[in-house]
Amino acid sequence: MNLSSETLAEIEAAIPKYPEARSAVMPLLHAIQQDQGYLSNEAAEWVAKKLGIEPINVLSVITFYPFFRQQPIGKRHVRVCRTLSCAMAGGSKVCDTMLKEFDTELNGVSPDGEVTVEFAECLASCGSAPVMLVDDELYENLDEAKAAEICQKIKAEA
Ligand code: FES
């Protein structure tokens, strides 16, 4: 595994926090996904070896939680909330705008490799629905026009 020195340090610091090494599987997976963008089979095997468990135990965690990804994503990660408040306030139209602007499909990678658009569950900002995250930045009170503006901003930054 080609992990950054910061990620390796984070991993080494996480394991002793748990009474059993195997309990550190979640923080290790988060750290690796943050570093690599997704969790490959190689990553699952590496974590299993590190924690002294079987790769299938790691894979079962990866496949259970929707926030773990098994495929690479674009350089920019767009997550549009689809939970009730956002769904009722037009979250789907916002998502459709993002997909159209980047000429991509839900959960895919845009042809230029820049963007992945996904749905997300409640982003804890229901009062300003609909909302979306672009990487770690939250955008609120969206509509199709605002979504298109954000797309132009992302394209300009590419
Ligand atoms: S429903 Fe979208 S932020 Fe809560």
Task: Describe this protein's structure.
This protein is an alpha+beta fold and 158 residues long. It has two domains: 5-64, Arc Repressor Mutant, subunit A (Orthogonal Bundle), CATH 1.10.10.1590; 76-157, Glutaredoxin (3-Layer(aba) Sandwich). The chain has seven helices and four strands; from the N terminus they run H-H-H-H-E-H-H-E-E-E-H. It has helices at 5-14, 25-36, 41-51, 55-64, 84-88, 91-101, 144-157, and strands spanning 76-81, 115-120, 132-134, 137-139. The relative contact order is 0.12. The model has no long low-confidence stretch (mean pLDDT 96). It binds FE2/S2 (inorganic) cluster. The site of FE2/S2 (inorganic) cluster has 12 residues, from helix 5.
> What's the CATH first level of the largest domain?
Alpha Beta
Strand arrangement in the largest pleated sheet: 2-1-3-4
Q: What is the element string, with H for helices and E for strands?
A: HHHHEHHEEEH
Q: Which structural class do the helices and strands define?
A: alpha+beta
Radius of gyration: 18 Å
Span between N and C termini?
Answer: 28 Å
Question: Roughly what is the average pLDDT, rounded to an integer?
Answer: 96
Number of strands: 4
Helix fraction?
40-55%
Largest sheet: 4 strands, mixed
CATH topology of the largest domain: Glutaredoxin
The name of the CATH superfamily of the largest domain reads: Glutaredoxin
Shape: elongated
The total count of helices amounts to: 7
Show unreliable segments.
Answer: none
Number of domains: 2
- Ligands (ions, cofactors included): FE2/S2 (inorganic) cluster
What proportion strand? 5-15%
- The CATH level-2 architecture of the largest domain is identified as 3-Layer(aba) Sandwich
